[in-house]
What we know:
This protein is α/β, with parallel strands linked by helices and 295 residues long. It has helices spanning 38-47, 65-68, 71-76, 88-92, 95-105, 109-113, 187-200, 217-237, 242-259, 264-273, 276-290, and strands spanning 2-6, 17-23, 26-30, 55-59, 80-83, 124-126, 132-135, 138-144, 153-157, 160-164, 204-207, 211-214. It has 2 domains: 2-220, Metallo-beta-lactamase, Chain A (4-Layer Sandwich); 223-290, no CATH class. The chain has a 6-stranded mixed beta sheet. The mean pLDDT is 95. Bound molecules: zinc ion (ZN). Zinc ion binds next to helix 2.
Amino acid sequence: MIKTIDLNFQGIKSTVACFLLKINKELALIECGPESCLKNLKSEIKKNGENAENIKHVFLTHIHLDHAGAAWWFAKNGANIYVHPFGKSHLINPEKLIASAKMIYGKSMNELWGSIEGIDENKVIPVNDKEKIKINHIEIKALHTPGHAKHHISWVIGDSVFTGDVAGAKINNGPLVPACPPPDINVEEWEKSLEIIKEENPKFLYFTHFGKFSYKENEIINLQNTLKEWLIWVKKNRDQNETILIEKFKVYIKKSLKSKLVDDQTIEQYCIANPPYMSILGLKRVLIKKNYDKA
Ligand SMILES: [Zn+2]
């Protein structure tokens, strides 16, 4: 059984999900959301007739706080936390993660993410590329899929892939929209990771932002194009004052979503799930790192 849980992040529906798996009697989560949503998550698990305390496994696509912020709580209650080897140390000692999040979110930090604690080393299990974790009769395969983050994993179960952020966000049947937050966006790696998803040729994708959809290869191709377009846009506009740049980027994204017939409410949900200002910060960093010539 796979159940999509709406974490009702910031009181907005269909922005951040996690997925409850029941394999025989064993309970697992793919993603666990931020600690600020833990109360919602616990009550949703209850509605499914289960207790959050009984979750034995948490599979993280990556360690960003909207996906993994509450992992420590599950570990404290005995769950194993499966993560990319590059994410392991940050879960055990989250100081660096907290400091860099503070730089971006400032005073909103607590309201957005809630509390963050380090996880006991014995509870953090690094998972290699293509490695399979077996829970009863079910195999859960890791695909290392960097690009959005260098510590990103997509989890494969049968004909479904849980894509975290690598396949972008898809909300209310809108298009795939990437999130490009700092610090380690890598567009070339990201494109390669999307090729890996294509090779897998799944039947369904489960998006953390938000929910289950049939896999369509052309949507992935469109996402690869969107990533390139965004990078070109930021390259063109990079010299403007940051506040103006962020405003202009918001307008650019909203306009492009509108042209794809996305309604206003859905656009708002996309912006909560993937704040445009974050993508500006992340893409500007790509340009600085790559030392792109000024066009
Ligand atoms: Zn995310």
